[in-house]
Amino acid sequence: MHNLETILISDCTLTGNEDQMSLSFREKIEFCKMVNKLNISVIQLNPIRQKKIDSLLIKSIVSAVKNVIVAVPVDLNADSVQETWETLKHAESARLQIAVPVSSVQMEYIFHMKPAAILKASADTIRECRKMTKDIEFIAEDATRSDHNFLCSIIKEAITAGAGTITLSDKAGEMLPDEIGGFLDRLTEDVPELKKVTLGFSFSNNLCLADACAVAAIRHGIREIKAMVCRDDGISLANICRIVHIKGSEFGVRTSANTEQIRRVLGQISVLFGGKGSLQDRGRDNLTDTAEGLYASDSKETLLHAVDRLGYDLNAEDQEKVWDSFQKITAKKDMITMKELDAIIAAEAMQVPSVYHDIRYTINTDHSIGAMAHMKMKFDDKELEGVSTGDGVVDAAFLSIEKAIGRHFELDDFQIQAITEGKEAMGETIVKLRNNGKLYSGRGLSTDIVGSSIMAYINALNKIMFEEENA
How confident is the model at residue 368, as a pLDDT? Predict the structure, then answer.
């Protein structure tokens, strides 16, 4: 087999409009730490606008992440380059980005600059960046609507000035996958200098084809993809990593991203941000959004259709239990959310004997080793025991259960919500495990969030074992 080229994955979830996710300072740092666990290549941040706040955020993220390039855009002037580099220079790997419009619409009517001025300012800024670092990325905004000859000229100037990565942006998001291929083939033929640099691409998801266009781009020479974790207006990081992992060898590429961790980390992000983003999982309807739900007037068929779309395969008896519970709840309130429907299914459907029981555990945390869980339980009368570290106490607990039972199950979803208030607030946890393509949910209630998480996991696990033993 030929050596596979590595596709670099650049996460740009935090770029653009700050109001899209409304994350706090701390949440942005936590987000970057979680994404860093995926072993992606680049984390991209917004440019410095509020000097004191933005500089502190960049420095905090730089100190929190390892083995990843931290990239920040600069304005087209030397002062911006110097200011940005001062905040970024202590990163293990730092990248300066120069993003400029290259279509006539954006250059003249939005940026108020003529093409010649854009070309000169870009080259001058790249040379200023080159004084600070060799890792420089030139981003041609709106490249797919640019005049071809001008696009070729500005890319050549950018490479000559010192840019090592050239990223093309389809900001309009109106190209189809086969059009992307033709666009890239023509450009690389007319700009042979592109063979010396890394060629990147970013796509708007205007036509819901960003992931398909990304695959087409990779097949035509793109080696860096800008993707997003918690937004649906660009390429899905989860999807593109999964596609390259499964199909990449067919067209000579691979990804260094940790595909085994993606589902787990996305679950952690979902819990941390409490639905502030629109967590991507294209190919499945996002029915866990609390803005979407079922109403008291909905029929049994509508309810069962929602159950089916959530991924559950319930027998007739469990369907009746869920329907009865739905009717009782909607007699008191007009609407239930999809998260509440998940909780109903976890509580009512497929209640089985507890083959895993007598759960005992110890959780330790330490700044040097992280979280560690020691789990003991019984399988019927057999004693089981497992110890594991993890990325947080809940992750360590789940991994220790897997060590104890000697099996691994895909964690499809993980939800936490408080159902009472105060210091002794009761927390409810829903854990959804997937086994042989089928979904099993468990529910846990406790004032201890780790305890409720373990109870929910074991509840789902007992359902899996019951069905396997009675198949």
Answer: 64
